[in-house]
Design a protein that fits this description.
The chain has helices at residues 11-41, 46-69, 72-100, 106-110, 112-129, 131-151, 159-182, 190-197, 200-207, 209-222, 273-279, 283-294, 331-338, 356-364, 374-378, 387-393, 411-417, 439-450, 475-479, 481-484, 491-516, 538-545, 583-590, 644-666, 669-676, and strands spanning 311-317, 340-347, 397-405, 421-425, 428-429, 456-461, 523-529, 557-558, 561-564, 571-579, 612-614, 620-622, 625-628, 633-636. A hairpin with a 2-residue loop joins β12 and β13. α3 (72-100) packs antiparallel against α6 (131-151), α8 (190-197) crosses α9 and α18 packs parallel to α21 (491-516). It starts with 10 loop residues before the first helix and ends in a 9-residue tail after the last helix. With 685 residues, it is an alpha/beta fold. It is globular, with a radius of gyration of 27 Å. Strands 1, 2, 3, 4, 5, 6, 7, 8, 9 and 10 form a 10-stranded mixed sheet that branches. Strands 11-12-13-14 form a 4-stranded antiparallel sheet, covered by helices on one side.
C-alpha cells in the first residue's frame, strides 16, 4: 500500500516542508527588490537594505506557508506560480519606472485600459528594449520550476506548524512596523515616509515594492491624513530674500493670522481664518485653516500688472527641453527663450501618477496628490484662480486646445471647469490621423478661431514631442529626420530633436499669424514643458548635455519662455530658483489678477519670496542648497556644513505644501473658504 504523499511526517520534516519554499521565496523577492533599487535609483541605502529585508520576511513566510502547506502536487504548482507573479510585479515596476520615472500604482492600473488603447505598442516596445531587467526577473521563475520537487518534498506539515508559521509572519510584520515608528530621526524620517507621505518612490527605496503596494492598498481602503504643524505655530524664519534685478526688496507683512480685510500691497483675498477655525469641527480642516492663516502672503512688486490688458497665449509643451533648442535649427524658440524674461534656474519636476500632473502643477500652482488623477478630480471643485476663469471675468474670450483626444485624462471635464471653451480631437478640432499629431497643423487651425477677438486668453497643450523617439513610431520624427540626420547623436536622440522641430514650426506659425493680425505687440507668449523628455534614457539625455546627467536634479532643469512682442530685443535675467509650480502665480501677478498667495503652493518668481523648488519625492532646491530625500542629505552651495534645524524646517515646509495641496483637492477647499468670505461662484464662471 502506497503512503499518501500529503500525510503528516516528522516534526522536522514538517518544518522543512514550510521552511524550504519560504527561504527560496525570501531569496527571490529580496534579490529582486535590491535589483530594482540599483537599476532604478543607482544606489542602495542602509535603511533600504535593512527594512526591505524585514518587510520581505513576513511575505516570504506566508507564501512559503501557502506553497508548503498545500498538497504536494498543488505546492509544486504554486511555487513557480508565486515566484512568477512576484517577478512579474517587480519586473513591471522596473520597466514602468524606466519609461515614466514613476512606479505603477493601483490607481494607474484601474485606468490602464485607456492608456493601453493609445500607447500599447509603445509599452511593448519598451518591454523589448528592457530585456536585461526582464531576464533578471524571469530567471527565478525558471529556477523555481527546476527546483520545485526539492523545495516541496513529500509529506505535509502538521496543522499546528502552519498556525505557528503564520503567527511568526504576523509578529515579524508588527515588529518591523514598530521599528519604523521608532525611526523618527533625520530631517525626513522613515516614520513619516511609511505612515504619512504616500510617495511611492520613497516607499520603494526604503521599504520595497511589495510594502509600497501594501501601503497603497491601505490608503485606498482607509485614506491618509496629512501631517500638520501645531496650532498657532509660526513658520520658521528663512534667510533674507535675494531679489533678481531690477526688482527692489519688498517690505515684509506683519506676523500672525490675516483677518477679513485683504492686506493692501499683498496678494490676498478677504478670508476670516479666525472665524473658520472657531467654527470648524473637523480637526484636519481646522489644522488646514491654521496653516494657511499663518503663511506669509506674497507682496506686490514692480512687475505687478505689467502685462495687464494684454492677450495671453499659454502653452504647455509635451516633452520640451532646453536641450531641444538651437539658434540655427529652432530660431523661433531660441529667440523667445533669450528675450523677454529669461529664467536661468527653472525646473520642471516629474510627478508620480500621470503626465497630466505636470499640466496640473503648471496651471494651478498646486502639487498633485499621489495615487489619483489630480486634474480629473479638480473638475468637481471650485477653481477660482484658474486663469481661464480669471480672464473670462475680465471680458476676455478664453480657449483651451489640445491636439489629442478630447476626453483623454478627463480633460473634457477639467478644462471647462477652469473657465475655457475646450477643443481637442473629436470635439471641434480635426487633424491628420498620424501619431503624434502635428502641433503646426493645430496652430494653423486654432489661431484663426481667436485672433480676431478683441481680447483673448488661450491655453494650449501640445503633443508632437511625445515619445517614443523612432522613425517608425513617431510621425514627427520621420517628418523632420533630414534636419537632424547629420547630428552626432544616437538615433533616438536625433528622433527626439526631430519631433521637437514640429513645435518650432508651430511657434513660428503662431507669431506670424499674430503679426499679420496686428496682435503681436499686445500678446504675451508663455511656454514651458509638462515634463522633461523621459522617453530618453539617462544615457541618451547625457548625449545632449555632453556629460553624464545628474538624475536627481539636473535632469529636470528646463526653460520657461515668458515673452511679449513689445519686449523684443530686451532680456530680463532672473537667476532665482523656480519651477513649473511658480508659473501660475507669476502670471497672475504680471496680469494684475486677484488671487490669494497663501492658498497657492508656488510663488510669484518676480517677488521677494524665498525660492523653493519641490520634487515629487520631497527633494528640494532653495537658495541655500539642495536636499536629496533618497539619501536624506542636504548640500549647501557654499560647501559649508548645513544647519540641520533649518533643513528640518524646510523639509517640514515641503511636507505641508504637499499635504495641504491634497486637502485643497479632497475638500474643495477654495469653495469652503471663499464661500465663507462670500466671493465664490460656480465652477468655470
Amino acid at each position: 500500500m502506497n503512503k499518501d504523499k500529503s500525510t503528516p511526517v516528522s516534526w522536522w520534516a514538517g518544518w522543512r516542508r514550510l521552511a524550504l519554499p519560504a527561504l527560496f521565496l525570501l531569496g527571490v523577492i529580496y534579490y529582486e527588490e535590491l535589483f530594482l533599487k540599483v537599476y532604478c535609483f543607482h544606489t542602495l541605502t542602509v535603511e533600504g537594505v535593512v527594512f526591505t529585508f524585514l518587510f520581505t520576511l513576513p511575505m516570504a513566510l506566508l507564501l512559503g506557508l501557502l506553497c508548503g502547506g498545500a498538497s504536494t502536487r498543488a505546492g509544486r504548482l504554486l511555487l513557480p506560480l508565486c515566484t512568477g507573479l512576484a517577478s512579474l510585479w517587480v519586473g513591471t515596476q522596473v520597466v514602468y519606472y524606466h519609461l515614466f520615472r514613476a512606479f505603477l500604482t493601483i490607481f494607474s492600473i484601474t485606468k490602464m485600459a485607456m492608456v493601453a488603447q493609445s500607447f500599447g505598442e509603445m509599452a511593448v516596445g519598451n518591454v523589448l528594449a528592457n530585456w536585461f531587467p526582464i531576464l533578471m526577473m524571469a530567471a527565478p521563475t525558471v529556477l523555481a520550476l527546476w527546483l520545485r520537487e526539492r523545495l516541496i518534498p513529500d509529506g505535509a506539515p502538521a496543522p499546528g506548524q502552519r498556525v505557528r508559521m503564520a503567527a511568526v509572519a504576523a509578529a515579524i510584520q508588527l515588529v518591523s512596523m514598530a521599528m519604523v515608528l521608532l525611526c523618527g530621526g533625520g530631517v525626513l524620517s522613515l516614520r513619516y515616509i511609511y505612515y504619512r507621505t504616500a510617495t511611492p518612490e520613497l516607499e520603494v527605496q526604503n521599504f520595497g515594492v511589495f510594502t509600497q503596494t501594501q501601503l497603497e492598498v491601505c490608503r485606498v481602503l482607509f485614506g491618509i491624513k496629512p501631517d500638520s504643524p501645531a496650532p498657532n505655530e509660526p513658520e520658521p524664519a528663512g534667510p533674507e530674500p535675494v531679489e533678481p534685478d531690477p526688482i527692489d526688496p519688498e517690505p515684509q507683512p506683519p506676523g500672525g493670522a490675516f483677518h477679513p480685510e485683504a492686506v493692501p500691497g499683498y496678494h490676498t483675498l478677504p478670508i476670516d481664518f479666525d472665524a473658520l477655525i472657531a467654527s470648524e469641527e473637523d480637526e484636519g480642516l481646522k489644522q488646514a485653516h491654521q496653516w494657511f492663516s499663518q503663511r506669509t502672503p506674497t507682496p506686490e512688486n514692480l512687475w505687478t500688472g505689467y502685462f495687464e490688458g494684454k492677450n495671453l497665449i499659454w502653452i504647455v509643451a509635451e516633452g520640451f527641453s532646453t536641450l531641444a533648442m538651437d539658434p540655427q535649427r529652432t530660431p523661433t524658440l531660441w529667440k523667445l527663450s533669450h528675450q523677454g524674461f529669461v529664467f536661468d534656474n527653472f525646473y520642471t519636476p516629474l510627478w508620480g501618477v500621470s503626465t497630466s500632473d505636470g499640466e496640473y502643477v503648471t496651471t494651478t500652482g498646486l502639487i498633485p496628490k499621489s495615487g489619483v488623477w489630480s486634474y480629473s478630480l479638480s473638475a468637481d471643485n471650485y477653481m477660482p484662480f484658474a486663469l481661464g476663469s480669471q480672464f473670462r471675468e475680465k471680458g476676455y474670450r478664453t480657449f483651451a486646445f489640445h491636439d489629442y483626444l478630447y476626453s483623454y485624462y478627463d480633460r473634457d471635464k477639467s478644462h471647462p471647469n477652469m473657465g475655457y471653451e475646450y477643443y481637442a480631437l473629436g470635439q471641434g478640432l480635426e487633424l491628420e490621423e498620424v501619431w503624434p499629431p502635428s502641433d503646426l497643423e493645430m496652430m494653423e487651425k486654432i489661431v484663426p478661431m481667436f485672433v480676431s477677438e478683441d481680447k483673448f486668453m488661450v491655453y494650449c497643450l501640445t503633443v508632437s514631442g511625445h515619445l517614443t523617439y523612432t522613425q517608425d513610431t513617431n510621425a514627427m520624427s520621420a517628418r523632420h529626420w533630414e534636419e537632424v540626420s547629420g547630428l552626432p547623436y544616437s538615433e533616438e536622440v536625433r528622433c527626439y530633436l526631430a519631433a521637437q522641430m514640429e513645435l518650432e514650426l508651430a511657434m513660428e506659425s503662431l507669431l506670424s499669424q499674430l503679426e499679420e493680425a496686428g496682435k503681436l505687440n499686445d500678446t504675451v507668449v508663455v511656454l514651458s514643458a509638462d515634463h522633461y523628455p523621459y522617453g530618453l534614457t539617462d544615457e541618451q539625455y547625457s548625449e545632449l548635455l555632453g556629460h553624464e546627467v545628474d538624475p536627481v536634479f539636473e535632469i529636470f532643469q528646463n526653460t520657461l519662455i515668458l515673452w511679449s512682442g513689445d519686449m523684443e530685443g530686451a532680456a530680463v535675467h532672473v537667476d532665482k530658483f523656480c519651477s513649473s509650480l511658480d508659473v501660475m502665480p507669476t502670471l497672475s501677478n504680471l496680469f494684475g489678477l486677484d488671487y490669494d498667495s497663501r492658498l497657492i503652493m508656488g510663488s510669484d518668481i518676480l517677488s521677494g519670496e524665498d525660492p523653493l523648488v519641490i520634487f515629487a519625492n520631497y527633494s528640494f532646491i532653495n537658495e541655500e542648497g539642495y536636499y536629496n530625500s533618497i539619501l536624506d542629505q542636504f548640500t549647501r552651495w557654499d560647501g559649508e556644513a548645513p544647519d540641520l534645524e533649518e533643513v528640518a524646517a524646510m523639509v517640514a515646509e515641503v511636507q505641508n505644501r504637499v499635504a495641504y495641496s491634497g486637502t485643497i483637492l479632497d475638500c474643495d477647499y477654495y469653495r469652503l473658504v471663499l464661500d465663507w468670505a462670500g466671493t465664490a461662484g460656480e465652477p468655470g464662471t
